[in-house]
Design a protein that fits this description.
- By secondary structure, this protein is of the alpha/beta class.
- It folds into 2 domains: 236 residues, Aspartate Aminotransferase, domain 2 (3-Layer(aba) Sandwich); 119 residues, Alpha-Beta Complex (Aspartate Aminotransferase, domain 1), CATH 3.90.1150.10.
- Helix content is 38%, strand content 14%.
- It has 11 helices and 14 strands.
- Strand 2, helix 4 and strand 3 form a beta-alpha-beta unit.
- Helix 1 packs across helix 7 and helix 3 packs across helix 6.
- It is globular.
- The protein starts with 8 loop residues before the first helix and ends with a helix.
- Bound molecules: pyridoxal-5'-phosphate (PLP).
Length: 368
């Protein structure tokens, strides 16, 4: 039986193997293992690719979030509004610097932060809002920007799943006070290990963020602030540069495959996340809602199709965040979404015939 994984990294490696081995050899010969020229080149390329002015490579998406929040002045005792329908790191990165996440429910149509519910969550302690472009589906950025401006709080986008997504013709992450990207291997742009990226909205914030990633040093052994080790590795920078060139093609393939799923399911009444007007999603995940998820996962798995759930437990109900005091039922839309979403295989390497098999098996078992 041919297995159809959620993301086929082996197939991608087969295509890129020659180039990856060659650049790996170059990095080893240069000895530029941490930061250095390969990382600097990638920083320029990735920032330019998104029309961002200030970009910093770092060790993960999680550290990117922590560092940009810290660079924007968030500190222990502050609060930040975010979504419960995301990966744990969105909130964890805040708690790492003593900032308390304040969860606001999601829009049932897009699964992104519901801007209509922001005002009620506002307190003097809230110093930032951290929307997540979940599945690569851009949030309602125009209204989020207006909200942040009105309350004079920072807007930091979690772009871990949304490389090259656009809204209003602009790339996500490029117009806010800050943004964080992840290059976790399975993300739309993936490194051979953990890596991340920070966009800063100003030069001063960019300088602070860069320092925080590198032990707060101003010279080799002179430290004028206390930072941490959040640096990007040279090998990661070099391989990310190589893969970055293919992103237009990879993104186009993701979008085309997503459209095929959509046209197969829409006529049959299944509910899938909608996009805001002018949004151009990049489909890190292809998500559809079902009422019998356990059965769907079991049936697909039985024929070698690896489906996933992103994410089964909303953050406000995570055991580790119990101390925040949210009860079940407090964010009903996110809870309902978490019970119903299933992610089907999607990556640039998925073939149409594999996808047709997934569609056929899904339709045999999935209930609305
Ligand atoms: C992957 C991810 C992160 C964390 O990124 P890492 O590189 O794994 O640390 C944060 N937020 C979201 C939405 C993610 O999907």
């Amino acid at each position: 039986m041919n297995k159809i994984p959620l993301v086929n990294l082996e197939r991608q490696y087969e295509c890129l193997r020659g180039e990856i081995l060659e650049i790996t050899d170059q990095v080893f010969r240069s000895g530029a293992f941490i930061s250095g020229p390969y990382v600097r080149t990638f920083e320029k390329e990735f920032a330019a690719s998104h029309d961002a002015r200030f970009g910093i490579g770092c060790s993960s998406g999680t550290s990117a979030l922590t560092v940009i929040l810290q660079a924007l002045g968030l500190k222990a005792g502050d609060e930040a509004i975010t979504t419960p329908h995301t990966f744990f790191a969105t909130a964890e990165s805040m708690l790492a610097i003593g900032v308390t996440p304040k969860f606001v429910d999601v829009d049932p149509e897009t699964h992104c932060l519901d801007v209509r519910k922001l005002e009620a969550a506002m307190t003097p302690k809230v110093k930032a809002i951290v929307p997540v472009h979940i599945y690569g589906n851009p949030c309602d950025l125009p209204n989020l920007q207006a909200f942040a401006k009105k309350h004079r709080i920072a807007l930091v986008e979690d772009c871990a799943q949304s490389h090259f997504a656009r809204i209003g013709g602009k790339f996500v992450g490029s117009t806010s006070d800050g943004a964080a990207f992840s290059f976790y291997p399975g993300k739309n742009l993936g490194a051979p290990g953990d890596a991340g990226f920070i966009f800063a909205g100003s030069e001063s914030v960019s300088n602070i963020a860069r320092k925080l990633c590198d032990h707060g040093r101003s010279e080799k052994y002179l430290h004028d602030s206390v930072g941490f080790n959040h640096r990007m590795d040279g090998l990661h920078g070099a391989i990310l540069s190589l893969k970055l060139k293919r992103m237009p093609e990879y993104t186009k393939k993701r979008v085309a495959l997503a459209k095929r799923y959509q046209s197969a399911f829409a006529g049959k009444g299944y509910k899938m996340p909608a996009a805001y007007p002018t949004a151009e999603p990049v489909y890190h995940l292809f998500v559809v809602e079902v009422s019998n998820r356990a059965r769907v996962l079991e049936s697909l798995n039985a024929v070698g199709i690896q489906a996933g759930v992103h994410y089964p437990v909303p953050l406000h109900l995570q055991p580790a965040l119990k101390f925040l005091g949210y009860a079940r039922g407090s964010l009903p839309v996110a809870e309902r979404v978490a019970d119903r979403v299933v992610s089907l295989p999607l990556c640039p390497e998925l073939t149409e015939s594999e996808q047709d098999f997934v569609i056929q098996k899904f339709l045999e078992v999935a209930e609305k």
